[in-house]
C-alpha cells in the first residue's frame, strides 16, 4: 500500500515559489525493518508487566517477529521499489538531475536484508536457553537484539549519507550493550568497552568524512554525490578527497579490516556466544554493506583512490587473520571462539576482494561479495551453533574440548566438520569452494593477479587450521581403549537444535544448488 503524505500549505513570505515537499511512503517496502523495530518496542513494554515465570514468552515473540519480517520480503521480490523521495519540484529546486530517494528496495537490498534477518533469527534461537536460565536479562536482551537487527535491515536500503549513518548507529549501539550483557563478568565488560571505543572512533571519522563530502557536493543522496564529485570546483577538490578517504576509513573500522581489527578477538571471546555469532555475520554484513554503498554508488569517480587501498587492505586482512588463526594451537588450550574470531578476520579479506575489483572493472563485481557473504553467513552461524552446544558442558570452550566429539554427539560433529570444510573451500562443502572461485575470478578479471596469488596462498594457510580442528572431532584421547565422550549426554534445548538444523540444511542446499547464491555474481546489483 502506498500512502501519500501531503505537507500542509506553506504560509508567509516563503509560500510563493516554495517547492512542494509531498512525499510518497511505500509501507510495503519499509515493512521488514519497521516490523522488527515495532516488535522490539512491544517487547520492551511487555517486559514491564510480565511476571518472571513468563519472561520466556518474550523470546518467542522476538523469534516470531523476525520470522514475520523475513516473510515480508517475499512481496518485494518482483522489482525495485523506492520511497522517501524528493518530488520533481523539490529535485529541480535542489538542482538534481533526477528524483533522488532515501530508501530503495532493490535486489541488493533484499538479499542483504534476508541475510541480516535470517542471521538475527538464528541468533535468537541460540539465545533462548541463556535467557530462560537467567544468564541474560530477557527483556533487555530481546529489545537490544531486535533494535540492532532493525538498524541492520535498514542500512542496505539507505541511499543518502544521513540515513546510512543513522542506520549504522542503530545497528551498532545496541550491540555494545549486548556484548557486555553478562553481568558481573569482567571479560564481558572489558570486551564491551573495547568494542564501544573502537566503534565510537569509527563513527566520528565517518561523520567527519560525510560532512566534508556534503560541503563539497551540497547533497546527501548517494547517486547525486556520484554525479557532483565529477565536477567539484577546484577550491573544494581537496575537501572532497579528504571526505572520501575519511568515510572509507570509518567503514574500515566497522568491517574490522586490518589494521582496524584489534577489537575483534577479545570482543568475540568476552561476548555471550550468540552475540559473538551475531557480530560475526550480521555485524560484518552491516559494515560491508555500508562500504559497498559509499564506494560503488557514491564514490565511483574516486575509484583510483579506494580501489588500490581496498586491494591492499584485502591482502593484509586475509593474511593477518589466517596467520593468527593458524597460531591457535589446540595443544595450548586455545579458545575455539578466538579461532573463529581470527577466521572471521581472514574471511573479511576475501569479502573485500570483489569490492576492490569493482574499481578496476566495468563489470559489476559486487555480486561476488554478496554470494560469498551468503555462504559465509550460513556456515559460520552453524559453526557457532555447535560451539553453543559444546559450551553447555565446557564453558571455557577450548579447541581441545572438541576432541572426540563424534563419539558423543555424532550429528553435531558431522555438522561442524561440514561447516569447517565449507569455510576452507573443500568438498563436500561445494558452495564454499565455488564461492572462493568466484571471488578469485573477480580479482583475475579485474587485472589484480597479485591479489589472486595472495588469496591462493591464504586459502592454503586456512586449510591447515580448519582441517586440524576437523580431524580433532574424530580423534580419541591417546591411551584410551575406547572413544570417551567429551560432551556429557544432556538434553539439547529445542531452539539450539533448530538453529543447528537450519544452518546445516542451508549449507547442504547451497552445496547442492550453488546457483541460488552464485547467480548474484552474474547479475548487476547496481
Low-confidence stretches: 1-20, 479-488
Q: Give the DSSP E fraction (strand runs of 2 or more residues).
A: under 5%
Describe the global form. Answer: globular
The class by helix and strand makeup works out as mainly alpha
Main sheet, how many strands, which sense, barrel?
2 strands, antiparallel
Oligomer designation:
single chain
H/E topology pattern: EEHHEHEHHHHHHHHHHHHHHHHH
Q: What's the number of structural domains? A: 2
* Rg, Å, rounded: 23 Å
Would you write up a description of this structure?
Helix 8 runs parallel beside helix 11. This protein has 2 domains: 206 residues, no CATH class; 225 residues, no CATH class. The N terminus is likely disordered. 67% of the residues lie in helices and 3% in strands. With 526 residues, it is mostly helical.
